[in-house]
Amino acid sequence: MLKSAYSTLSEAGVDEAGRGCLAGPVYAAAVILPADYKNKLLNDSKKLTASQREVLRPEIEKHAVAWAVGSCSHEEIDNINILQASWLAMHRAIEQLKPVPELLLIDGNRFKAYPAIKHVCVVKGDATYMSIAAASILAKTYRDEYMEKLDKLYPQYQWKKNKAYATGSHVQAILKHGYTEYHRRSFQLKAFQTKLSFDS
Predict the structure, then answer these.
(1) H or E segment to which residue 70 belongs
(2) Residue 4, domain member (yes or no)
(3) 2 inside domain
(4) H or E element: which one contains 13?
(5) Which one of 3, 103, 177, 197 has the fewest CB atoms closer than 10 angstroms to its CB?
C-alpha cells in the first residue's frame, strides 16, 4: 500500500520518464493529490500495464489538486547531459503548478533544488508515495504518446513498441538505417558497446 503523504505540508510528487532512452525527450510530471485521495490501482508506472496506466491518467488528472508535465528535448539532453536535463524537465513541470506546493517529493537520490520550495529525495519513491506514483504515470504516458507519434515518421525503429529504449531491435535498426534527427548523439557509443557486448 502506497503512503498518502510524507508530511502535513502541501506536497507535490515529481518523477521523470525516458532518462535511459536512445532517442526523444525526457519527460517529467509533478502532481499534488488531495490529502484524502485513495486509489488501489495506483502504483509505480513500471509495475503497471500500458492499459492500466491509460486508465489511471485521466483519473489522476481529474482528481489532482494540480498537475503538470514538462519535457527536455534530445538537443538539450546532448547539450547539458541527461541528469541535468531530467532536473530541468522536472523544474518545467513544477513551475506550472497552481497552487504552489510547500514541499517536493522527488523520486531518486539527487535533485537540483527548485527556488523557494523545500524538497526531499526518496529512493524508489514511485513505489512509496502516491503523489510520486501519480507523477510517474503522467510522465510515462505523455512520453509514450509522443514516441508513438514519432513512430509514424520512423516506423523502422519500432518506437511504438520500444519507446526508444536500447532494445536489440532498436540498436540493430540504428546500425542498419543510421541515426534520426531525434536520436541522442551523446548516448550512442556507450549504449552500443553495452548492447552489442550482451548480444555477442
Answers:
(1) strand 66-72
(2) no
(3) no
(4) strand 11-17
(5) 197
